[in-house]
Amino acid sequence: MSxxxxxxxxxxxxxxxxxxxxxxxxxxxxxxxxxLKPAQTGVAxxxxxxxxxxxxxxxxxxxxxLRRFPDPLAPETAARRVxxxxxxxxxxxxxxxxxxxxxxxxxxxxxxxxxxRFDPDGGTLADVAWxxxxxxxxxxxxxxxxxxxxxxxxxxxxxRGIACAGVVxxxxxxxxxxxxxxxxxxxxxxxxxxxxxxxxAGVGGANPTAFAEGARRWxxxxxxxxxxxxxxxxxxxxxxxxxxxx
Length: 246
Known about the structure:
With 246 residues, the chain is of the alpha/beta class. Helix content is 40%, strand content 21%. The protein has helices at 15-28, 50-58, 75-82, 89-100, 125-132, 146-159, 178-191, 208-218, 229-236; strands at residues 3-8, 33-41, 62-69, 105-113, 136-140, 164-172, 195-200. It has a seven-stranded parallel sheet, sandwiched between helices. β6 (164-172), α7 and β7 form a beta-alpha-beta unit. α1 (15-28) runs parallel beside α2 (50-58) and α6 packs parallel to α7 (178-191).
């Protein structure tokens, strides 16, 4: 796999930290890694964006940002409001292909969910993944409501003939409630894709060494780590919590 597209089921689900985790593990394995952010929104030109967070956690990886818009809106809306040219899926695909020429792995981090509009013609991250023939890693919220958004995202991928590389819970709480714990078993059922990681909340401030060590525990072998979904789920349904495993 030379290109992996990373999408959330929505905003603020931990997509950037998951991207950094995949990048850190690939880099630790000796792979040349690039991270592409097609559209950064809600960040001024002189402020650090998502790519700065990735490099702070993953270390020296190549980064590229195609467009930056100051308003915290969908890329197409944000571009229109300031009179800037939108990001076109064809532009993203071309930039990805160029990075893939000199890197072993290119990670393309979307903005929000899979079908957030990039341009006035309705181009989305799904179009980018389809044109590249690249799988999509879905980052989901931990708690109540995530089954619906995850199922919708998986259905959108299937209808477009795009492979799903799995689902990662992007911000696992220190004290998960019943809904979050049940979601560990239910996310694979509603998406038809494996649970390939659970990343704890609040790890965005870790140093690169500690983060890489953590990423190995949090992400599955398909992403370069050692995470075992069955083992993790069984632990969360420990009878000591008062729950009976199903």
